[in-house]
Amino acid sequence: MVVETGFSSPRTDAFPAGLRVLVVDDDSTWLKILEKMLKKCFYEVTTCCLAREALNLLRERKNGYDIVISDVNMPDMDGFKLLEHVGLEMDLPVIMMSVDGETRRVMKGVQHGACDYLLKPIRMKELRNIWQHVFRKKIHEVRDIESLEGIESIHITRSGSELFDDGHFLGGEDTTSGRKRKDGDNKHDDKDLGDPSSTKKARVVWTVDLHQKFVKAVNQIGFDKVGPKKILDLMNVPWLTRENVASHLQKYRLYLSRLQKERDIKNSFIGIKHSDPSSKDSNSGAGLHNSMNVIQDNVSNGSFSFSVNNSCVLNVDLKGHEGDVKGISSGPMAESKGTFSIDIPDPPRAKSLQISFDHSLGSVDSVVNLASFSSTDTVQYSWNEIPEIQFKQEYEPLQLENRTNQLPQPGLQHNLLTKYLQPTVSVSPGPSVTEKTATSSGFEVKPMCDKYRNNHIKLSSPTEAVGESHTLNDQVFEPICTTTSSMKSQDIIPNHLTESELSPRNLYDGVGVENLQLCWLQGDCYAMDSGLQGFDCTEYNNPTMIPEMPVHLYDAPRFDHEHLFDPMEYYVIDQGLFA
Amino acid sequence: MEVVQMQRGLVDYTKTLFMECFLDAQFLQLQQLQDESNPDFVFEVVSLFFDDSEKLLNDLSMALDQPSVDFKKVDAHVHQLKGSSSSIGAQRVKDACVTFRNFCEEQNIEATLRCLQQVKHEYYLVKNKLETLLRLEQQIVAAGGSIPMIEMGFLKTINMKGKHDSGVVYTVETYGVFCDSTSIRSL
């Protein structure tokens, strides 16, 4: 590979010497030893014995460190959690260490995103080589950007499913696309390398605000046309670079895909057989699809028939690496009425977020089970209430299994759910809504759907959407359209419902909501084209919906759906995430 | 006593510690980390180890003394102790911790109490040995000599458990030729 290193910082010449390492370990003996060992490697070492302190250091000095080495067992914070935070907020490579080398633990570390797992006692030679992780990340970042650029150009011409493929490889499991871009990457690298300012990418901390702007921009652009450059332009954040946006977008998609993957796999929609695989939905797991399909059918009934009950068990089974899927209950969920609850199981276990809608509308009882990321709280949402989804920080990264171009279904689910919720709640901009919007730092997801919608349908943010004949479709659209949580379904025109275009399966086709959305739009044929976009929308939406968004995946854990939640919740989450 | 004799004594002593598994290769690594910029490195690290361990042992005693023992907590302490002991290469202590943890899992009060005793025993033993060793080193230094380094080859010969940098490989017969003049570094 001829890719240049891309390190153009002053210390490049001596690389890996001067590598800035942050070591976190509660054992003072080890801390001293590691410091000494790392200094022998000519690295710049900073030590601290508390995870919180480490996070503070990292936040204070953004771009002040190249790599973090952390012990797994620490008193104040679980090493895995720290790992997630670092990965999410700072996107630094993290190495875990422990005296315990059990396969399960190691696996957990890798799942949480650790780039390596060292067993104590640690040898000098192991520490000498840690620079490779920093280097590798740099390389991948550049390559990802190249890939994204490639995707941009073909967005318009490709169908949704194809987009999925792109997204698929964007997700990191890129094979051909990635390879193809190698040359491009090299060129890009060379170009970037030549320019110190661009090669050394400053670590961008994706705060909630920033992420909201991002999502807003994405919505404005339109899912089918989204690309880093456009997003960047719209965001109007002077210090942000295209690469930052690109990699953020990339990560998001990756994350969503993983969620989707897991969901698909663990999906246990009741009785909803994935009978008709939507065309687009090539890879998705049946779960959501099926359910969505069902929903779709219901929708056609015209009323807000998110007949989740029968099928809506949108089981988003975000399984943690442990694979325990909890709370996936499709059947029963459906019957539940009146409560939109999200159960977030323990992080270590399966995470299944179950969101059950309680349609106050009565027409539809939908229980949506969304895999949750290990959150132990159960959020109860009532139609008329703003659901409070407690985001647990302990999100265990979902395994991205066979990544297909699946859009994170969970997100979709969420959207759907929120949609449903909205109907009764007429969201309108009631106090809660406003609060939400106010608080949700900007996730104002302008409903992307707007673009897609036809004249009548007005996708409003979920909070606003209310009682109007929120057909399922609308609901569904909401999420899709509005990447941000604002599911406005208020103006959802019943027309949609009548649209039987709404093909259930679209819901979860890889494109997920996107498809659905397309269907809804009367006559609009966004079809899979917007698939990706749709996903983007949902993706973003979803994360918020899903309490346990893999924090590390999304720099800004908060997503639009936040306004679905109680503003206070939002803040709570916020604090939790960014504490 | 002549410096050379002291040095030889130190080497012999260290050898036995390795042979009896009180210490493993990690300790050698620590010694190798010590240099001019940090001449008391080993001493400092070992002192930290003593402090941490004693605190942990106290906590363990207390935890096991409770009417209703919280094994999770006990296990956490033992895990920490295991980590600490591995940091300086206190092999026997570490091994005792492994056994200890197994019994914690079984929630076996009697066995864990016995394990605690065992761990304590091993700890005090190695503490004693290390203190002796450090004292010998100090004497050598005070007498103007330098601390001899044990070569890694030595460890290979006696089949020490545990990992060690095999960067330096000498043909060693038994545990003989491991400390030649070149290996003696001057402070």
CATH topology of chain B: Four Helix Bundle (Hemerythrin (Met), subunit A)
Shape of chain B: elongated
CATH structural fold name of the domain at 20-148 in chain A: Rossmann fold
Radius of gyration of chain A: 22 Å
The CATH superfamily of the domain at 20-148 in chain A is identified as Response regulator
Distance between the termini of chain A: 41 Å
Number of strands of chain A: 11
The helix count of chain B comes to 7
Structural class of chain A: alpha/beta
Q: How would you sum up the global shape of chain A?
A: globular
| Alpha-carbon Rg of chain B, integer | 18 Å
Mean pLDDT of chain A: 56
Pfam family, one (chain A): Myb_DNA-binding
Biased composition (Basic and acidic residues) (chain A): 182-194
Subcellular location (chain A): Nucleus
GO cellular component, one term (chain A): nucleus
Description of the structure:
The complex is a heterodimer of chains A (about 575) and B (about 190). Chain A has about 575 residues and is of the alpha/beta class. Among the domains of chain A are: about 20-150, 3-Layer(aba) Sandwich (Rossmann fold); about 210-265, Arc Repressor Mutant, subunit A (Orthogonal Bundle). In chain A, about 45% of the residues lie in helices and about 5% in strands. Chain A has 24 helices and eleven strands. In chain A, helix 4 (about 105-110) links the parallel strand 4 and strand 5 (about 115-120). The longest helix of chain A is centred in the N-terminal third of the chain and has 25 residues, at about 130-155. Chain A is globular. Chain B is mainly alpha-helical and about 190 residues long. Chain B has a single domain, classed as HPT domain (Four Helix Bundle (Hemerythrin (Met), subunit A), Up-down Bundle). In chain B, helix 3 (about 40-65) packs antiparallel against helix 4 (about 70-90), helix 4 packs antiparallel against helix 5 (about 90-105) and helix 5 packs antiparallel against helix 6. Mean pLDDT of chain B is about 80; it is low at about 160-185. The interface of A and B includes residues 30 and 33 of A.
